Structures are given as C-alpha cells and as structure tokens.
Amino acid sequence: MRWIALSYKQAFKQSHNPQEVKPQFDVDSLFELAAHYSPVVCWRQDQHHEHAGWLVEVHSSFRLFGGPQALLSQLWQGAEEFPAELQLANHHTATGAWWLSKCAPASTESDFLDMLNFNENSLLALPMGVLDCDAKLQATWHQCGFTRLADLWRLPRDGFLKRFGAHALAELDSGFGLQNKLAPGAASHKPADTFEQETELPFHSDRLDLIEHHAQGLLQAVCNWLGQKKQGARELHWAFKHAHGEEILCLRSAQPTDCIETWRRLLHHQLARMQFHDDIRNLRVRCMHSELLPNVNTSFLPDPAEGTRNWDNTCDVLRARLGQQTVLFAATESDPRPERSIVLQHTPFTKNTAIVFKKIADKNAPELNNTTLASSTPRPLWLLPTPKPLQGKTPSWQTGGPWQLLTGPERIEFGWWDAQPCKRDYYCARDNNSSLVWLYQDLHDDSSRWFLHGYFA
C-alpha cells in the first residue's frame, strides 16, 4: 500500500466573535484534490487539534495515472495552488505518512518522489513529538532520555505496555505496519447524504442578473458535493427569501448530472421567467436525492446513446424556458386499464421505483407478469380523455353501418379490488369517415352501452 498525507498545522484566524473561528485551509478544496487520485480518503486530526489533514491511499490508482512517480508528480503540482504551509509526505503505512508530514515533509518534488524508497529506518529517526499522545506521557519520555522513535521501538513490548499504556503502543505499531486492535482506524470520508446551503446577499435587490451572479457560488458548492459523492442529481430546490416570505424554484434535469454548466444554463432560463415583487435577501439551495451517474463509454464509431443525451438536454432547456408542463415523459404502467396504462411525469420513468410505490399504495393488488399480457393486440396512439358514448345504431360486423367492427373482442377485466373496476370488450372498428377507431362495450353497465375510446392515427 502507499499512503499520502496532506496535513497542515492548524492556525485559526481570530474574528470579532470568539465563537466564529475560520481555519486557515479550505478543507473541501483539499479533499477534492485528494479524491481526484483515489476513492479512499480519510480525515486525520491529532488529539489536541494541532495538526489536521487528509490521508489518501493511492496504490490502487498507480496504473490509472501511469505509475507511482507520475501520480505523485501530478499530486505535487496540484498542491502548489494551496498555501505553503501544506505539508506532504508518503509512506507504505498511513500513520507513517502522517508522522513524516508532521516532522519531515517533502520540500521539493524530488524529495516527495524519494519517499517511495523510505522504509522503517526512515521513521526511527523521527522525534517522539510525532506521536499523538498525551503531553504528560511525552514529558515522561523526555525525563527517561528518549528523544527518537528508535528509543521507544527498541523497548520490550511488555514493559512498554505496562508503563506507557496500550494506546501509545498501538499508534507505534500502526506506524511500523504491525497489526494492533487499538491502532487508530482510517475510515473513508463519506460526504453527507443531502446537501443544503444558504447565503445572504450583500445587498437587497430584485435584479435577476445580480441574483443569478450570487447563485453561481451555491451552484459550485452543490456540484462540488456531487463530485465528492461521484453521483449526479436530477432536481435542485431553490428558495429566494425576501421580507414577506420566499419564492420557490425547482430545477429539473432529465438525467442525473453533476455538470455545473448544465445547471447554470437551466438556472439562467428559469430565472428569466420569474418576477420578484420584493427585494431578495437570502438564497438557499437543497439537493435531497442523488444517484449514480450513467457510465459513458467512448467509441470510435458513433455512439447511439449520444442522441438520447442530446435530446434530454434539449428537453431540459425547453422546460426551463417554457415551463415544466411543456415537456413530459411518457411510460407504460403495469395496468391493463388503458386510461391508467400510460403515465406522464417530469423525469424519465424509473421502473423499480414505480413498482415499489404501487405495491405500497395498492397492497391488495395482484402482481402482473408482463410476459402474459397480450403484446400483439393493437393499441391506439390517441386516447380520448373521457370515453364518448356512441349514439345511434349499435356497431355490427355488417358494412354500411355507422360503426363497422373489424377485429375483437378483447376482454379487459381488472381493478375489482379498488374503486375503479372495469369489465369491457374492446373492438377495432371503422366509422363513416373510414377512420380506424377503438370501441368497447361496458359489461358493468346494465344496458351494456358502447363507447368510443380512441383513434388509430
């Protein structure tokens, strides 16, 4: 294994309010740098909060970046954007890398690469101050004449455990690669499941361009959060607060995305349609749900999925400019009743989620097997919102009548457990205008009336 430590000595900037102290480093930006090279990023902080930073396990990423030296070089160059107080080191143990970053960090890129050849002897020369132990224990060691880790490492383990405690021995073991149940664990950092952030405008205004300018910072924050999770979002909920309440805005994307340019474009079009009747004071953005991003594989040949992605982006822009109801996604539902077999919603249909919600809503509903449903029976593209009762003569198989039956019947009997049961015989027929129509006879009705339900376009 190969661990990289990015640590810094915490020096808080004093403010007028003693309770408001801000750290010297942007921890989130430092995490983004570390997470770019490995999914295993762990937060480490000393007991007395003197040193803090991130530990990154990069051995599994060597092949992706062209080898260990190439990866370390890229990380070193990316760390140059941070203040000079950032201390970098690497070692084959996490605790060893942490010790080196605290007392013997790399001063140049070549020193950082030379650490690939470090072994346990490089750690033995470190002072005892690298151990994250109590100050009284450190003073006891100095009184005993111990100055380096080598002095402690050569002591008998039983005597060390009896006189100095198990926690000090556990950290010493973890630095040299020995297993110890009490060694400090390195749990991978996981961003929060939901995101919510609010900012106050430096001025109160209802100008859309100024409001949009300050909303860019919140967009950047939510996209950074999505990048940390390696996921995308379909909805961002915005709140524009003024003196008398707040205005709500929901940005929707047809596919999960963490691209800030996509959200900027949707926010720009949505804000252009809004009118604020009072000066906006605060902005808030929420992301309550995120999901894994779809895998996109590049190919020498044209990608068939590229057209789908372009179409989704076009739908997003149309809905942002014209309204949410202008573009809806249609999908089939496992319900034989024609009026309930198609659902329209703002986002693409998720089959598994819909089935779960349906089972919760209709606990007594039988489970349908789609393979047993009739797949060759024609269905009209245009269904009437409400079936239209037929007037005049009853449809027949004879030519010359107002309704000439062509095929059928197809029996649909469903929904006896809920409030909308149906028992119908459906027929394909032709009317006086030679249009192909869809008729049914309602068998639940005492008079068995006939209805026009759709047209085959």
TrEMBL record:
Highest rank taxon of the organism: Bacteria
Keywords: DNA damage
Organism this protein belongs to: Limnobacter parvus
Protein name (Swiss-Prot/TrEMBL): DNA polymerase Y family protein
